[in-house]
Predict the structure.
Amino acid sequence: MRIKNLVLKNFRNYEAEEFSFAEGINVLYGKNAQGKTNCAEAVFYLCTGASPRTGRDKQLIRAGEECARIAASAQTRYGNVSIEADLFENRRELRVNGAKITKNADLLGNVNGVFFSPGELRMVQDGPEERRRFLNVSVSQLSRSYYTALVRYNKILEQRNALLKNRDLSLVFETLPVWDVQLCRYASEIIYRRAEFIQKLAPLAAEKHAFLSDGAEQLCVSSEKKYPQDKEEIAQTLLREFSDNYEKDVRLGYTSAGPHRDDIKLTIGGAEVRVYGSQGQARTAALALKLAEVDIFREEVGEPPVLILDDVMSELDLSRRRKLLSQIEGVQTILTCTHTEKVLFGREVNKIRIVGGKIRR
């Protein structure tokens, strides 16, 4: 799986530019604040329908313009695919192979992407929301049913939470069971798919981490909460949990249990990385998770995803830079940095210099 070319028009600081990417490592280099990360962001947007940096599409539009355009052609094991996104202040238009799509679910899986930047340390160091975001982005690309279940679950959850704030308690207790049945239907799919993903992720992440740390430390990845393995049993377990928490949820004004509250547990030597890990340990753990994610895509889809490494090399010592490069053989990689000579150790790569939102040839 590889992106052959990318067209940007009025996207971030780009007025109009076209990129041609090679199969292996593609290096976007130049001084800071020139647009390297913006290009990497555009690629990931076409993979997932969302920016890794902002939740508002209007922030992607160049200052003073009314709309932005991102378009790419890619080659996959199933053939060529083209993806286009026209972004406006309050809406967007997506097309796959020229056909307009109205659901983000129809975009997912056409071109898979894994994104890693220094900001991804939040996944290890911050609260559960960041780790759930990691799961949601990854699993959604592998399973459209997961993404659809996630969207519907969140809508029903929002309605249930609104009901819990109602002061007519008789109405609340009478209506909650109706929402719970619908909520559990989608929650069971989310929990099942996450467990499936974590089961594959754990050994791969441990292997990558051991390689990056020269076997000095052992990373363990697990679900913080244990559920049954059968979807129907998961739904029944959640149904009972929701029922047992009625009074608590009414008092709090929100739903206190469910997959929107779940977390991944990351430990090194038995100690939680989030609480006890150093900056270096957190960085290595996050990188191991991302490299494991690449392997899962390779195994599940039959080809590796597009790997986007945004300013990652500056955060790694020489040994880990070499190790990282050895792990991305055969994976189309879009890598941003300021100085190519310092990070690539003489490798032959496709170099693209960016100056002020333009390719300097």
